[in-house]
Amino acid sequence: MRLNELLGHRVIDATGNEIGGVADVRLVQDGPLQASMQSALRIDGLIVVENRATRLFGYERHVGPALLRRLVHSVRGETWYLPWADVERIADRTVQTRTVRADLRPLDEMARHP
Asked: Which domain of life is it from (predicted)?
């Protein structure tokens, strides 16, 4: 599966409730050293938005003009971080989690860089 194929997938929690949709993938560069002398990338987690018809525009964190941020946040809804370890399975354009929505961390509470 390619990373861009994950975008837009529905995200369903452990109780069967829809959380939202995959808007982005968080990668970490801490894999094995490659021939290019850089570490390989691995998936750390998924960025899930409540309104899965929206895309992130870079305003999911506290950057940019306040009025534009509020507008984007009102259209997008809540945004959560789903750790890759909590993904149970991916099938039929759906991501099934091992957790429930209440256990997910809001994206804006996370540090910009791990």
From this structure: Bacteria
